[in-house]
């Protein structure tokens, strides 16, 4: 498909486990974003990649969270020692032409993470 | 820092009527963009409309228009001729154009229900 894809769509894990969430952006989009959406809230920014590098990781809540984008396309969000408070929907978005002010972000369907 | 306030947790509108969803924002940045997204029950965020802070005219996209009042720091979304398929969660968001701003800050959303 032509849109942003995320896998898995659902992930259930136990407290203390490690998880990886994957995002496949729209082909050719240089910017990639991760957001977290808790129940009843709007998405909250986690990290932004421009190409392979993290241009802004100010939204990562602590050092258990880490994200990579080694080839400037697919990105993986990694969460170590998961806690119940990490349960949320993790949304990925991508955008082209990062210098353009009206640059909209195209979102994927999200990964629903449940930590038991 | 940016803040988005959406004071209407839920709204009802009859089919074919117009509805206004409120959004106020707070920022110290002199230039910024305002966005509205729709999130159906499927979870995917769908971009609706964009307004730049220096745009002279209010943005319109089909049945969507943005009532931008810069002095009041409000950016209300107007949906004309509501359809059943408009039932969804609606989020207002902003992005500053200075200070390395690429991340979107979202409000808490308004749940819109269109009734027959």
Descriptive overview:
- The complex is a heterodimer of chains A (116) and B (116).
- Chain A has 116 residues and is an all-beta fold.
- Chain A contains no helices and eleven strands.
- Chain A has strands spanning 5-7, 10-13, 19-24, 31-37, 44-50, 53-56, 65-68, 75-79, 88-95, 106-107, 111-115.
- In chain A, the strands form two sheets. In chain A, strands 2, 4, 5, 6, 9, 10 and 11 form a seven-stranded mixed beta sheet that branches. A four-stranded antiparallel beta sheet of chain A has the order 1-3-8-7, with no helix packed on it.
- The model of chain A has no long low-confidence stretch (mean pLDDT 93).
- Chain B is mainly β and 116 residues long.
- Chain B has no helices and twelve strands.
- Chain B has strands at residues 3-5, 10-14, 19-21, 24-26, 32-39, 46-52, 60-61, 64-69, 74-79, 88-96, 105-106, 110-115.
- In chain B, a hairpin with an 8-residue loop joins β10 and β11 (105-106).
- Chain B starts with a strand and ends with a strand.
- The chains are: A mainly beta (116), B mainly beta (116).
- The A-B interface holds A 31, 33, 35, 40-45, 48, 50, 55-56, 59, 89, 91, 93, 98, 101-110, 112 and B 4, 31, 33, 35, 37, 42-47, 50, 52, 91, 93, 97, 100, 102-109.
Number of strands of chain A: 11
Which radius of gyration of chain A do the C-alpha atoms yield? 13 Å
Helix content of chain B: under 10%
Report the span from N to C terminus of chain B. Answer: 41 Å
Query: In percent, how much strand structure appears in the residues of chain B?
Result: over 45%
- Estimate the global geometry of chain A from the Cα principal axes: globular
Look at the helices and sheets of chain B and give the structural class.
Answer: mainly beta
Seen as an oligomer or otherwise, the chain set is heterodimer
Biggest β-sheet strands, sense, barrel of chain A:
7 strands, mixed
Biggest sheet record of chain B: 6 strands, mixed
Protein structure class of chain A: mainly beta
> Secondary-structure element order of chain B, as H and E?
EEEEEEEEEEEE
N-to-C order of helices and strands of chain A? EEEEEEEEEEE
Please tell me the overall pLDDT of chain A.
93
Tally of DSSP helical segments of chain B: 0
| Uncertain runs of chain B | none
Runs of chain A in which pLDDT lies below 50 for 5 or more consecutive residues are none
C-alpha geometry of chain B: globular
- Percent strand of chain A: over 45%
Greatest interface = A-B, 29 and 25 residues
Distance N to C terminus of chain A: 32 Å
